[in-house]
């Protein structure tokens, strides 16, 4: 694969900021955060340099997926209010440049992960990129209202990739971290879709509110929330989260259920849209808080164990 001449691309019109925007930095930051949690929560120890390389590869792979997604979705991005300011619709980067950029970063991230971390993590990273581009973006997104349900797996893989980078294997604990994000994704995105429905309808993307209507979407949000709340507590039962995480996950899960119930029952006008927007915003906080507490517990636990070891 020929390495794209990034300097010439930028000289032709795209700025460094435009190429950074192709990487979807906000999504990348969430991917890096959840991958870090999977890496730190995994048993055993990992050299800090190797851990940094693993996280760098996961972040670059996530950015590559974003660039490839923007390449393929350039036509509908130009028509949606939420995405019209992206680099390709604005003419700052051509679709061909985004494709070359994404392919190069994909190959580089997988190759470096395999050579410097382990090939199991590299294979899972490659599958994650493939799943997001081919399964979600190219196939599911424009063909089924279940696009977010199945395609959401792509966003749920990062903590598992982090776990495999640290251990070389997939375990039940990593599957639980995957499942939390997997079942969080539908209520998170469907809440957004409820008040952005016209955007998706305009471009022919069959999001659930467009195809099945707002009432069915609210019902599905409630059902997935009922699954998510107890699932968020499961790390405590499996022994890789502590009492603080347990308390936080119960309280946060209760708030999530309360907001999801309000979305389900308050269906009219501005108040209904406001509740959907509130759930969307809280869902981001919910996932962040759960993974932040899990990260903190594991970091503090590792530090205490190290201190005890030195004392002994």
In short:
By secondary structure, this protein is mainly α. Helices cover 79% and strands 0% of the residues.
Q: Can you offer a commentary on this structure?
A:
This protein is mainly alpha-helical. It has two domains: 14-169, Orthogonal Bundle (Tetracycline Repressor, domain 2); 171-312. 79% of the residues lie in helices and 0% in strands. The chain is built from 17 helices and no strands. It has helices at residues 6-11, 16-22, 25-41, 48-72, 74-77, 95-116, 119-140, 147-151, 153-156, 158-167, 172-195, 197-203, 208-211, 214-231, 234-237, 243-265, 269-311. The longest helix is centred in the last third of the chain and has 43 residues, at 269-311. The radius of gyration is 20 Å and the shape is flat. Mean pLDDT is 90; it is low at 1-11 and 302-312.
Indicate the topology.
Elements: H1 6-11, H2 16-22, H3 25-41, H4 48-72, H5 74-77, H6 95-116, H7 119-140, H8 147-151, H9 153-156, H10 158-167, H11 172-195, H12 197-203, H13 208-211, H14 214-231, H15 234-237, H16 243-265, H17 269-311
CATH hierarchy class name of the largest domain: Mainly Alpha
Q: How much strand?
A: under 5%
| Helix-strand topology string | HHHHHHHHHHHHHHHHH
Q: Which percent range fits the helix content? A: over 70%
First and last CA, distance: 54 Å
Query: Any idea what the CATH architecture of the largest domain is?
Result: Orthogonal Bundle
Question: Over all CA atoms, what is the radius of gyration?
Answer: 20 Å
CATH fold node name of the largest domain: Tetracycline Repressor, domain 2
**CATH homologous superfamily descriptor of the largest domain:** UbiA prenyltransferase
Shape: flat
Low-confidence stretches: 1-11, 302-312
- Main sheet summary: none
Mean pLDDT score, rounded?
A: 90
